[in-house]
Amino acid sequence: MLLEVKNLRTEFKLKRGTVRAVDDISFSIDKGEILAIVGESGSGKSVTSLSIMGLLQNPGRIVGGEILFNSQNLLKMSQKELQKIRGNKISMIFQEPMTSLNPVWRIKDQIMENIMTHMKISKKDALARTIEMLDTVGIPSPAERAYDYPHQMSGGMRQRVMTAMALSCEPELLIADEPTTALDVTIQAQILELLYRMREKFHMAVLLITHDLGVVSEAADRVIVMYCGKIVEEADVKSLFAQPLHPYTVGLMRSIPQIDDDSDQRLYMIKGMVPNPLHMPPGCPFSDRCDSCLERCTKDMPELQEIDGHKVRCFLYDKASEGELSTK
């Protein structure tokens, strides 16, 4: 097992109260696997990735759990120890490349800095590796484009630069946070194909953070669905799309436009809004938006249970709820 997250809890202490952004989640990633975490904005996806990278900023802090990378607990490491792993063994592609790249540094300088931080090579060799990585991710005329500034590149090219930088030290785990956001569908497909090729070339695992189920269906091996900081469903990608179990996942699936649907009906929309994280309702946080809500859903929090290799957090699959279901 490459990465194991056990009972992770991440909080943000605010003046108005405490937000539990990541609420007791556990998952693992094997070497060479692509695991997608999907959910609406505010579900805890990005906070999970920042917790793994050790990049949480105040007032965020991890209050419980373990993050094991190659059996080493990252939460017990010093910043100096983490810096040897971050950008080297674990790399991250951030959500917005224009804000992640330094606007006053040339592309080559930004990639070379990462290479020379983690690899004992000369400046000349670091430049050669930079040009090689730019070529690997499909940037044309890499020797010339290496001298460009970020503003001289398109959004798709900047995302490729971020990918080249993240892969420059051949990481074992790549975290990609919304890597296709704000890109048109053609560039999205190219970035996903690039991630898949890089996975094959470098034999690395990928943690893909996204809200786009289309991206998930194309790229992932396994999928975790998050809602209000909790995992509500987990399955391999084929099982999830063939038979989603949690009502939230079903709602997300029904919200996807179908190219062969020629009806004039409005696209399905999950009713209501995500609850205020400072005032979470009792019971299941999805209960007031759920078309299949039971009485106990408004009082108790369901446990994550396994059904034929498919994990789901819902009372619809709990034997204790069978009587209530039969009277609904």
Q: What is the spatial order of strands in the main beta sheet? A: 6-7-8-3-9-10-12-11
What is the string of helix and strand elements? Answer: EEEHEEHEHHHHHEHEHEEHHEEH
Mean pLDDT: 90
DSSP helix count? 12
The major sheet is characterized as: 8 strands, mixed
Shape: globular
Distance between the termini: 43 Å
Range of helix content: 25-40%
CA gyration radius, whole angstroms: 21 Å
Strand content: 15-25%
Query: What oligomeric state do the depicted chains represent?
Result: single chain
Q: Based on DSSP secondary structure assignment, what is the total number of beta strands?
A: 12
* Poorly predicted sequence stretches spanning 5 or more consecutive residues: none
- Give me the secondary-structure category: alpha/beta
How would you sum up this structure, described in words?
The protein is 33% helix and 23% strand. By secondary structure, the chain is an alpha/beta fold. A hairpin with a 2-residue loop joins strand 11 (305-307) and strand 12. The longest helix is centred in the middle third of the chain and has 18 residues, at 185-202. The model has no long low-confidence stretch (mean pLDDT 90).
